[in-house]
Write a structure and sequence with these properties.
9 strands; alpha/beta; Rossmann fold; binds adenosine monophosphate
């Protein structure tokens, strides 16, 4: 049975009532759950203890003109999936004010947000870090599971977690894809048949880069050449190959790196990435 709580007070009471030797695994999400989210919940379950899921479309991580108002929502469907995955508690705040009694306090991780999505979406990671910090303070998990799909988010949350001495451990989980290679995302719901087919250019481009890399190419300009054309009629937001840890853009690959991409198909912005290890 999944307990659903809608207030910070109820979440705190549930957490306070848990015996101290019982473990908690936490999966924060914005809902509209798909197999990517479920892979995190299953791993949380596998690790034992109580699985806590949060479903909160966090307004502070959306910029003006982004899709906050139309972000897909399906709470009943999400809770049915949560039950199937053995979630003990789902935290579904009834309103943003529940997590934002004021909007005076913010958590900023500097440096790691200077590239990739940080540059395209100013303020996005401030919103992400602030909400994840609040959730970790409330849930006090032993382990928090995040997807590598949002590779920069994972790196930034890891840095915040380490620098602020937040509880538990952060675990990154592999990207779950459709059979044809498209990375699962709640935003795929915006795609129609045409843009869905066009969006396959993203995993194909990453495959092409990975194949050239595996064949020995190390020059980033060569690896990324022709990307905009390969994505057309999709519009490239960025394609960068960055250092796996510092996220600084590389011109040559000498150590662990990531090819990271964001592109628009119609109004829909999709992201994806691929690890490149020499
Ligand atoms: P979201 O609901 O988009 O905020 O995502 C919640 C969590 O699920 C984040 O840690 C994401 O990185 C993770 N996630 C989203 N899509 C995928 C995917 N295709 N594979 C693995 N994890 C994912």
């Amino acid at each position: 049975m999944t307990v659903v709580v809608r207030t910070v007070e109820a979440l705190r009471s549930w957490r306070a009532a848990l015996p101290t030797d019982e473990r908690v695994a936490f999966v924060p999400t914005m809902g509209f759950l798909h197999e990517g989210h479920l892979s995190l919940l299953r791993e949380a379950r596998r690790r034992g203890g109580h699985v806590v899921l949060s479903i909160f479309v966090n307004p502070t991580q959306f910029g003006p003109g982004e899709d906050y108002d139309r972000y897909p929502r399906d709470e009943d469907g999400d809770l049915a999936k949560a039950r199937d995955c053995g979630v003990a508690l789902a935290f579904c705040p009834h309103a943003p004010e529940e997590l934002y009694p004021s909007r005076d306090t913010w958590v900023n991780v500097e440096q790691l947000d200077r590239h990739l999505c940080g540059r395209s979406r100013p303020g996005h990671f401030r919103g992400v870090c602030t909400v994840v910090c609040k959730l970790l303070a409330l849930v006090r998990p032993d382990v928090t599971l995040l997807g590598e799909k949002d590779f920069q988010q994972l790196a930034i949350v890891r840095r915040m977690h380490e620098d602020l001495f937040l509880p538990g451990e952060i675990v990154g989980m592999p990207i779950v894809r459709e059979a044809d290679g498209l990375a699962l995302s709640s935003r795929n719901a915006y795609l129609d048949g045409t843009t869905r087919a066009q969006a396959l250019a993203i995993p194909r481009l990453l495959d092409r880069i990975a194949a050239a890399f595996a064949a020995g190419e190390r020059d980033v300009a060569t690896l990324c050449a022709g990307a905009a054309e390969a994505l057309a009629p999709g519009r490239l937001d960025y394609l960068e190959i960055v250092d796996e840890r510092s996220l600084t853009p590389l011109t040559r690959i000498d150590g662990p790196a990531r090819a990271a991409i964001a592109a628009f198909f119609g109004r829909v912005r999709l992201i994806d990435n691929r690890m490149l290890v020499p």
